[in-house]
Amino acid sequence: MLTGRQLLILQVIIDDFIQSAQPVGSRAISKKDNISFSPATIRNVMADLEDMGFLEKTHSSSGRIPSEKGYRFYVDNLLSPEIISDDVNVFKHVIQDGIFEFEQVVQKSAELLSDLTNYTSIILGPEVFETKLKQLQIITLTPQTAVAILITNTGHVEHRSFSIPNEMSASDLEKMVNILNDRLHGVPILQLPEKLNTEVRSLIRLYVSDFEKSFDYLKAAFFNEHPVKLYVGGKTNMLMQPEFKDIDKVRSFYAMMEKEDEIANMLKATTDGIKVTIGHENKVDAIKDCSLITATYHLGEEQMGTIALLGPTRMEYNKVITLLNALSNEMTEALYMWYKNNE
Amino acid sequence: MLTGRQLLILQVIIDDFIQSAQPVGSRAISKKDNISFSPATIRNVMADLEDMGFLEKTHSSSGRIPSEKGYRFYVDNLLSPEIISDDVNVFKHVIQDGIFEFEQVVQKSAELLSDLTNYTSIILGPEVFETKLKQLQIITLTPQTAVAILITNTGHVEHRSFSIPNEMSASDLEKMVNILNDRLHGVPILQLPEKLNTEVRSLIRLYVSDFEKSFDYLKAAFFNEHPVKLYVGGKTNMLMQPEFKDIDKVRSFYAMMEKEDEIANMLKATTDGIKVTIGHENKVDAIKDCSLITATYHLGEEQMGTIALLGPTRMEYNKVITLLNALSNEMTEALYMWYKNNE
DNA sequence: ATTAGCACTCGTTAAAGGAGAGTGCTAACA
DNA sequence: TGTTAGCACTCTCCTTTAACGAGTGCTAAT
Questions:
Q1: Residue numbers of the domain that contains A55
Q2: Based on the domain organization, do B218 and B234 belong to the same domain?
Q3: Each residue of B120-171: pLDDT tens digit?
Q4: Do A139 and B141 touch (CB under 8 A)?
Q5: How far from B275 is each of B71, B74, B81, CA to CA, in Å?
């Protein structure tokens, strides 16, 4: 267990390093306002903290920097819940301005978040659990081509172009759309493929001749793939961090950011609440010297998506956690409003 | 005017430098298969070429590198039209696979182009000149919110959520949509705002009470902004170029890439055909040590969009120009097919 | 006209030295 | 007994110096 003095000094060192990105020396600490010990005393404490694994040296006679264990301790025990900053009010504006659809809210939030923190923000879009089909439309452009449009109750619109098989007549198409709308209205998006294959398939067979091919076209266009919606903001912010001054790190960082599914998987595994993953706690190699902070947002009990910030391990944990907390609350609330209005 | 020998040596130097990114010395040149002069002779020629401004030295006793004037001459006079490579066939596949909508074709092409060249590709989407409104739909989600969907004859779909003013009833909304569809079907997208303000406005006023506000909502949602469609592929490719080994260049490059309108303006000014802009010929500061190669694609006489590749001045001009030429032809052709099928 | 030879230039790399920041340890102090 | 001053030591960073090599320009010979 750490003494009060050890706690104080550990905190000061980490705070200082987060600010300066430079190893912190005993002399510098002793000059701080809230410190009244001599450099020598502080050196003793620092040696202890190093023995315990909370601090490291970059070389034998350098100042100290926090170890990953140090950051872990800092995050778990030393964070002083910050007074909610004015920034949070900005979220309210962005999110509750009702004329946007939810997708845009998410995107804007990602941008905002990275602007406020100067880190990279990643938001995993709302999962489709609770969204339901509102309407399906097919509009023919030419006798051979058409565009299918799918609207959910959350205002999300998805569209695909496809070509109409020769065997299918306009009236067949119309019939099919009518049946689909009739049967699928209000069905949760996630259940669409199943429902489509069971009841609807046989029903359409009765009315539409040679329906198989058209049906497959449509199904392929919409219901097979469920691309993850990932919004990334402020990738360039990382370039400003001093730990990214060497080009190889930049390269591997950008390479990693292009693997969207990997990122998505990483974020999906998140449990509820705020979670901080520091350095090697991350499973992905390219961010083993980064920290990832994730928060979830909800609809009722159901987890809908994840908000995350990615930065160097030397991250402003206090600020970031406060912001993420606030944003996750705002989004949960916004989601709830949607829900109430739509059911 | 340059002698044959000067031409040969200039070409060899530039070819070599484009490959190696290293200053080229006389000895290295004399060893090439198609060169039969001694290093001393070559040195004389190189000195002449330098006097004429085609070559430069990085320091007083270094090998030569091409100057911008040198590249200019190279591009204008020394390019041997390359045999169309197999790569071009890939374009055909991507572009003529009819089930995609045009937007996706453009996007895929951008990716493909940067993959093939290892430079950054930028494509300015097809202008809306010739696209016409096919259908306008408004789907209400709740009594207060609705999503408006606009479909063009090219299969392009645009959608916006908006809230319905309290004063407006469902039947009013329906009336309005009917009028809009009736009056605006087949109208070119670019003329929509004008048409909307003149004939349609007065017409709606007759049928829908208190239409002003709703009308403005809708108009704001769709017709005021015409965001440029810009597709960028392979931004990370630039990181691999040796001229981007220093982080500040990377920073300013990425900063520049975020200013989409600036890029769009730069590309819009393009005249027909292939155009090469080398180094300081570019007006934008951040790419004063890059070359930009642009090509246009057409529908009939009308220029529809621009394809561009951005790389270091030390660029594989031969390859890039061939590819761009091919792609611009493919896209023009694809566009023509669309047109024929849709009118 | 071409080329061999040679002195010269400049960038690159390695080694060497000094300054500065910071440590660990010991001994003195309150 | 906990705290502090003092001091030798270590390591990085920066600068200087020297050697090396790639490449040039010029001159004289072919």
A1: 4-78
A2: no
A3: 999 988 766 567 888 888 888 777 778 888 888 777 888 877 777 777 777 8
A4: no
A5: 14, 14, 15
